[in-house]
Amino acid sequence: MIRYIYAVILILSALFLSGCHKETTQKQGYFEGRFTYISSQASGVLQSLSVDRGQMVKQGQLLFQLQGQPDSFDVDNAKAAYLSADANLLDLLKGQRPEVVQKDWFALETAKAQYMYAAQTLERQKVLAQTDNGTVAQLNQAQQDYKVAKNSLKQAEQQIVIDNLQARIDQIESAKQLAEAAKAKWQQEQWLLSQKTAYAPADAFVYDTFYYSGEVVPANNPVMALLTPQNTYALFYVNTNDLAALKLGELVTLTCEGCHEAQAKISYIAERPEYTPPVIYSASTQDRLLYRVEANPVEPTATQFHPGQGVTVTFKIIDKA
Description:
The protein is of the alpha+beta class. The protein has six helices and 15 strands. The protein starts with a helix and ends with a strand.
């Protein structure tokens, strides 16, 4: 019984394999590219265009530069405002100026000397008053001078303490916020100025340029279009019957006039068909429904394939006899 089942399976397999086999088919398409448009977020006069159309550029290579004025003036003004705000903050943090502190120390030494002299005079008047060699008026004057000298000394000592203090916390916080705002403004102006110089984001082919030196370039308007090898792909269309043979990631063969045969990997298959008019959809016309397919070369080079260039795409399909 088991041998009979195996024999049936073998017969059915042989019939199936003889009834369908894989063969290749070819579709005509063309190369297309996804361009990188290089622009500036600041407007200005195009001072220099450092590359030409059709040129290969390396990552980080200078592409173009706009005139720096008046943005360079704004950078200088913002820098000066930041340095002024920062200096004001440092001044509030370090207390009184050295010249003022030195003057107050001199006043303190003078107050100490006057206090010591007043204290000695008071003691002498007390002794004279006990021996009847002094008067009550002299004793009262000595006591008054002592009180004045003592208060002056206390005031001078407090002034020294004040000289070593920083500004009030709210003043320091306000100055700190102003300094941070001025620094942010300076950084913003520096960034705006840097936008007037453009560098290549990757190794690429200069596909086209749109401005010449001396022309005014509005903000965010592309100055040139770059094409990286990775952004070149083959575009072709297949009908409903061939659609089942294609899967994402599957390899196809690309051939074109004047270029070497290359392998490409399918990167996109449209979910919806495109109609070849005039079409009235029916079972008999479904082969006229076309699906867009894109395939990226496995080893792309910038000079091998060009947008608009015709290409023949070869892939395998299953033919059922």
